[in-house]
UniProtKB/TrEMBL annotation:
GO biological process: cardiolipin biosynthetic process
Signal peptide positions on this chain: none
Source species: Charadrius vociferus
Topology versus the membrane: Multi-pass membrane protein
Residue ranges of the TM segments: 96-112, 145-163, 169-187
Assigned EC number: 2.7.8.41
Gene Ontology cellular-component annotations: mitochondrial inner membrane
Source organism phylogeny: Eukaryota, Metazoa, Chordata, Craniata, Vertebrata
Protein name (Swiss-Prot/TrEMBL): Cardiolipin synthase (CMP-forming)
Amino acid sequence: YENPWTIPNILSMARMGLAPVLGYLIVEENFNVALGVFVLAGVTDLLDGFIARNWANQKSALGSALDPLADKILISVLYVSLTCANLIPVSLTSMIILRDVALIAAVFYVRYKTLSPPRTLSRYFNPCYATAQLKPTFISKMNTAVQLILVAASLAAPVFNYVDSVYLQTLWCITAFTTVTSAYSYYHYGRKTVQVINNK
């Protein structure tokens, strides 16, 4: 049983809150402001990881799930919005969202399996009950970084006039490759990415 209101967790929730704001700005083609808000979201990501690593009382099992979940929500909203703005192909966005939906479903399943009885809805969704800690694979961390680089490059493309650049299209291919590889790594190393917390 842990305190969910740590600074890293609050920053992760703030990042989730910025996702619809970014989506709206992109759909409205306000790319200059969207780029600034995206940088702000990136700062919250860097800060929550730094704080959790350097202050033991700020690290939590909830944070190990909340941080990647915030990333996935932000990335999904950004990719859908950028696809609507014709800056990222539909096929790539579909691939990324399918992978993330599968991972989120797996997280909910792990939560159910590791929650001690009684498995009530109130206990299931109570963030104070820590049951498992998630450990992303190395390729998954690389994939998240590549996806965010593509988002930054795509947001900047209409601002700096390189929408049809071959380098941007090459980045699409690299992102697709790391997304598929990351999905396979979770399938292959599934059990090793979850550390069940013993409740005494």
